Amino acid sequence: MRAVDFNSDMGEGFGPWTIGDGVDHELMAFISSANIATGFHAGDPGTMRRTVERAKALGVGVGAHPGFRDLVGFGRRHINAPAQELVDDILYQLGALREIARAQGVRLQHIKPHGALYMHLARDEEAARLLVENLRVIEPELLLYCMPGSVICRIAQELGQPVVREFYADREYDLSGSIVFTRHVRGYEPQRVAERVLRACQEGVVRTVEGQDLAIEFDSICLHSDTPGALDLVEATRAALDAAGIEVRAPR
C-alpha cells in the first residue's frame, strides 16, 4: 500500500459540551478526511461550521456523519424505526452539512453513518438499499464509507455508488471480520495501535481476538476522536505511516 486515507469523527460536541478529550482542533492536522457530526447524535450548526472551516484550512476532506436521533445516547443505541424514516433522517442531516459546507466553498467528499446506525446499515438490506438508491439520485459521486463485506458495501457496489472501505485502528476484530465492541484496542498504547495499523497496510492482516490473523482489504483507516488518548494514538499512527513511506491522502 503506497497511500491510504485516514479519517476521524469530528465536531461531536453540542453547545458547550465536548466528547472525549476535546482534541478535534489538534487531531485534524494528522488526518485526511473528517466525518462531521450532523446534529442528531451530536453537533450543532455552529460546531459544524467551525469544523468545516478547520478542515478547509488544512485541506482535509469533509464528510457528513449522520446518526440515529439520539442525543442522549450519543447515537450508540439502536432505534427500531422503519427504513424510510431512517433514510429521511439521514438525508435531512446530509443536507444540513452540505449547505453549511457550500457556504464555505467546500463540496462534500463523503458520507459515513455513525455508531449504531452504521452497524444497522451494515446488516439491514431494506434500509441500506433505500439509502443507496437515494444517494444515486441526489449525490451519485458521494463516497460512502462502510465496512468491507457489509450489506451496504455490497449494495453500493452493485448500484454504482462509490465506496471507501474502512479499517478500524481502535476496534478489535473477530475471525468473522466483525467488530468486537470492547470499544477500544486493549490498553490504548500508541505504539501498539501504530504497529497494528502498519501491519494492516503492509501485510493486509489484523490479529483477531481469537489470536489468529484475518486478511483484510481497506481504503481508509479510522481512529475515533473520542477514544481515550486519541491525539497520541493518531500522532503515533501517522508517524509510523510516514516513516514507512505510506502517503496519507483523501480518496479524491
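(ticket continues) Second input and output from the same batch:
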Amino acid sequence: MRYFLIAGEASGNLHATRLIEQLKIQDPGAQFYYYYHPELAYMGYVSVIMHLGKILHGLNACKQEITTWKPDCLILVDYPGFNLKIADFAHKNVHVPVFYYISPKIWAWKESRINAIRRNVTSILSILPFEKEWYAQRNYQNVRYVGNPSVEEIDEFLKNKQADSMAFRKKHCLDERPIIAILAGSRKQEIELNLSYMVRAASYYSKDYQLVAAVAPTVETSLIQRVIANYPIKAITDDTYHVLQHSTAALVTSGTATLETALLEVPQVVCYRTHFPHIANILRHIVLKVKYVSLVNLIVQRSLVKELLTSDVTIQNIQQELGRILPGGDKRQEILTGYRLMRKILGRHNTTENAAYHIISLMQSNRCQNSAIK
C-alpha cells in the first residue's frame, strides 16, 4: 500500500519516522511519501498572518503532491492548522482513508474543529488516555488509544543508554556541577519569546549549577547563540534525552518536552510566553477549555508542575519556582511522586506497533468491503 504522511514539527517528525519503520515491518511492500516542512509551523494568529503567503504555498504544494502520487491513505501527524485543511482536501478530492496520529488538541481550544474531524477523518490514533472519552462525549467514536510514543521512546533510550555522567560531561566539555536543563522549544518563535527569560532566570543559580540548553536538531544554532552569547550556558544540539538524563531540574516550554522531561524524572517548571503577553493572558481565560497547558498536568488532572504562562513569565517568577524544585526545594519530592502516577496512567504499550496495525487493519477491511461491493 501507498502511505502519504505529513508532519510539521520536530516531535512529529520523530513519531512519523518511527511509524514508517513499523509500517514497513507489517507491510513489506509499502511505499511512502513523507511531507515534512518544519518551516511552515507557525503559532499564534499574528505569526500565521505574517507568513500566510508561505503557508498557502506549502498547502498548495502538498495538495498537488497528494493528487499526483495517488496514495492509498493519508496519515496526519499533529500539526493541526495545516493537516486539518489537508484532511478536508482529501475528503473532497482524493477519497482515501485519513488517519490522524497524535490528534489535534481541540479539547484545549478550537473545539469547533470536531465538525471537520467527524467529516474528514476516518480514525484517530490517540496518544493521550483521556481523549477517547472526550471525543465519544461529542459523538465521534473512531478513536483508539494506542499508547504514548514518548513512553516507548524513552523506555528504549533508558534500556540502551547507560547513564555515564562523566563521559557525557567530557563529550560536551561540561564541568562537575549538577545541571539545570533549558528546553525552549523547536519553533523559532517559541525560542525568541522564551529562551532569554529562561536563561536569565537560571543564571541566578550558575554558581552552583551548570546551565545547558537542549536544542532540537531543526533549530538554527545562530538563533540560540544570539540569545545565550553573554550568559554562562552551554548549548547541546540533538541530544535532549541525554541532557535530561543527567539534569537535576529543567525549565521547559509547553509541548511534548514537558512529558519527556517527566518520563526522565526531572522536576520542571513550564514557561510559555507569547506575543503581547498581557492581552494573551486575558484571551487565555476566554479561549482555553482546560485548566492546564502542560501534558503532565493534563494527564494527572492536577497542578503537579508549575505553569508560568504569558505575563507570568518573568525572571523573578522563574527564579522562585526553579528554587522550589532544586534539591532541598519544597516541591521537588511531590513532583517526582506525581511523575510515577503519570506513568501508571499512560500505561506501557507498543505504541507505534499498535498504530501501524490499526491503520493496516482498517485499510484491508476497507479494501475487502469495496471488493464485495464491486
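Agent notes: The domain at 2-147+349-373 is CATH 3.40.50.2000 (Rossmann fold). DSSP finds 17 helices and twelve strands in the chain. Closing as not reproducible unless the customer responds.
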